[in-house]
Amino acid sequence: MFNTVYDVIVVGGGHAGGEAAAAAANMGAHTLLVTMNLQNIAQMSCNPAMGGIAKGQIVREIDALGGYSAIVTDKTAIQFKMLNKSKGPAMWSPRAQSDRMRFAECWRTMLEQTDNLDFYQDMVNGLLIEDGKIIGVKTALGIELKAKAVIITAGTFLNGLIHIGDKTFGGGRAGESASVGITEDLVKVGFESGRMKTGTPPRVDARSLDFSKMIEQPGDDNPEKFSYSPDTKSLVKQRSCYMSYTSKEVHDLLRTGFDRSPMFNGRIQSIGPRYCPSIEDKIDRFATKERHQIFVEPEGWETVEIYVNGFSTSLPEDVQDKALRKVAGFENVKFLRYGYAIEYDYFPPTQLTHTLETKLVDNLYFAGQINGTTGYEEAAAQGLMAGVNAALKIQEKEPFILKRNEAYIGVLIDDLITKGTEEPYRMFTSRAEYRTLLRQDNADLRLTPLSYEIGFASKNRMDRVIEKQLKTDLFVKFLIETSVKPEVINPILEENKTAPISQSMKMFKIAARPQLDFTDIQKIPSVARFIEENNIDFEIIEQTEVHVKYAGYIEKEKNQADKLNRLENVAIPSTFDYSKVKSLSIEARQKLAKIQPTSISQASRISGVSPSDVSVLLVYMGR
To answer: Which of 70, 169, 465, 533 would disulfide-bridge 226, Cβ 3.0–4.6 Å?
Structure first.
């Protein structure tokens, strides 16, 4: 191992590291995954769940490209929900509760079964950089490991500092030491670094809770799954979560610890996640709100450990204990571990290109929380893209870059490198201007062909996508061409309180009515017969329904995306000197010189670059 020059070394074995290592290895690169503890690969450091609003779309996209996250989630899920079903399909988002221990075990098993992938347990505390190029890493044991490319996926470990009340100690996660040395080496060669903060709630013993005082939150009656692969199955049985609420009394008790809270006494100065705040932050910012939701989430099938979602805190342990006991159902709670906050180093992602390679050091890639993101899903997506691109660069092939109209992953990376972030970045559907195109149901149709083209997605996956598209087109054609008689459809229409018909009508027009869904359409004998004869499965039915009901919206967004792509195709040379373009605003010149956009489209998304600045650039580019 120590005499080997690896194609790719991945530093860190979390969600970003796992996907990066798998992607690079599956792209044919001889890969080494170096992590501080091989027992903690793909650990769910915070909540035991994958997916959610926009995050579920990302997990589906990772799967469509050839990553592992969705398969592992399906194999270890204990509950599945499709969120936002009452809204349009652009908002539907899958989410699964996972068995924490099985999740990590399954990830490690899949990685160990991946060809071209080696493992090594040690702390990386230095980077080997020569003439502006990474050539390897140095470990705590003084061992130098050489590589053509290095991907850093250090999570919250870079100079990690844990806070519980007035106690502070170094660590990257509870019970694990922080990583030192990497930040210092990067700053030496000119990288800008910063600090961010995140936190986690207490874990408690389910045997000490009274679930009868809580509101049950079961999974879906007909649960789906994440992966498009036939190798995983939907859940047959599920575990329920539960919901309770804080109260004014709880808030008053929490406030008694504010003087000892690192959030308020100045010991934590870094910025935490806006959309997943600590309980003390919530009651401080929303002082007029008398209660907040608490979600009670089991950590697995067999364990008694419970994750208290919504109660993330770094308050002293005695305050955590007193306050949580006043939440309904928690009166006799037994703590397994207290909540804590953690501060860690990150590197503003404007220092990266769209491939996640750093601008300062060739063949060095960053993925995950080092880039200022929060969440397993965002980290995994970055890891996959960094792994693929590191392998492609070594193989002297074109980079793999997803556009904003092609994937949430494209939106995520473009947001990071174009706009940067000063607080932990979290993906939302609202960040995607083409979310009707980027639905969870069509990630395979969007991305598997692109991935197959670069040799990442398998032929089996590609064959399934071709079959899905052909059968969807066939079903749509059937609905367009086939009529239904009033006596057949009217009872169904009346049952759904929509106007009956007086003469035969094409089924496409009937199926487009908002009052009907496709469970109603399948009651028509000719449709049921068509589905059976052509072996139409749930995915194809869902795809057809979305096409029938939302064709107009989809077409409109496609046209808008085409306009965007025209600007995307107007490239800006990397040597372009913005200081000479005096008709640009001063702010635009500064921002453009710092970000170095590769296209007019990217330039237009930089904060401080106005439409008139874009017009000036178009003139300079000869457009």
So the answer is: 70
